[in-house]
Amino acid sequence: MADARGQSPLLRVDNLSKYFGAIAATDAVSLDVMPGEIHAIIGPNGAGKTTLIAQLSGLLPSDSGRTYFAGKDITHKRAPERALAGLARSFQVTCVVQDFSALANVALAVQSRQGHSYRFWRAAQQDPSLIGPARAILEEVGLAAQCHTLAGNLAHGEQRQLELAIALALQPRLLLLDEPTAGMGAADSGRMIEYLASLKGRYAMLLVEHDMDAVFALADRITVLVYGKVIASGLPDEVRADAKVRQAYLGED
User: Which of 128, 147, 169 is where one domain is finished?
Assistant: First the structure.
C-alpha cells in the first residue's frame, strides 16, 4: 500500500509471529518502513525486539506471518539471500572477525557482496577492487586511521563503527540496527547518533534502541512492543504522548 506521497513501503511485515514453546516472542507484529525512513522499535526487556530483527534478517524462521521487501515476498528467504537483496544487519553484541584488521573485515564484506568465494581470500587481500571500496567505507565511518588495527584491538565504540562499516559494504537498501549504541559511553554514543543521522535519507533503517535520546533524535516513526505485541505505532510525539506507552514503558516523566 502506498503512502500519501505515492511511495510504497520498502519493508512490510504482516502479522509476524515467533513462538518458543508456549511463549510468543513476537505476536502478530505488523509494521512497515518507507524508503529513506528511520523507524525505531522500542519496548522493555523481553518485548521481542531482537527476535523481530532476527526474523527480518532471516536468521530466525517465523512461525506465521509474511515479510515483503521491495515488493517481493521474502518470508522463506534465507539470511544470505536477504543480505544480497539489500537487507543488512548489525548485532546487539559486536560481531566482527577479531583477528582480521578493520580493513580486512570490510574487504571481506565487499567480497561477499561481489559474490566471490572466500576460498581465495588470502590472494584477494591485495585486490584493489576490494581494498579500495573498503578503505573508502572506513573513512566514511571515521575509522581510516585504524584500518590496519586488528578488530579485536579496537575500542568497543570503534568495533561498533566497524560493524556498521561491514553492513554498509553490503550496499544495503535497509539497515537493521540492533542496539547500535549498546555498551558505549556518552561520547561514543553521541558520535554514533550523529553518524546515523548523517545517513538519514540515504538508507532506510529499522532501529532497535534502548537509548530514548537516540530514538527521539533519529526516528521518523516509532513502534512500541510489549510482550511481543505492538501496543502503539506512529510519529515520535504521538508515541511519547500515548497513555499506554507511558504506562508500559516510558514512564510519566
Answer: 169
* Spatial contact of 90 and 118, defined as CB atoms under 8 Å apart: no
21 and 132 fall within a common domain: no
The pLDDT tens digits of the residues spanning 169-219 come to: 888 999 999 888 888 888 888 888 898 999 998 999 999 988 888 899 999
pLDDT of residue 221: 97
Domain hosting residue 144, numbered range: 97-169
pLDDT in the model for residue 91: 55
Which H or E run contains 73?
Answer: strand 72-73
Burial of 69 (0-12, 13-18, 19+ CB in 10 A): buried
Say if residue 84 is exposed, middle or buried (CB neighbours under 10 Å; 0-12, 13-18, 19+): middle
162 and 179 share a domain? no
Q: Judge if 139 and 253 occupy the same domain.
A: no
Nearest to 208 by CA among 243, 182, 231, 184: 182
Burial bucket for residue 142 (CB in 10 Å: 0-12, 13-18, 19+): middle
Amino acid at 124: A
Which parts of the chain have pLDDT scores under 70?
1-6, 91-95, 115-125, 250-253
Single pTM value for the model: 0.87
Please tell me whether residues 78 and 108 are part of one structural domain: no
Domain-embedded: residue 91: no
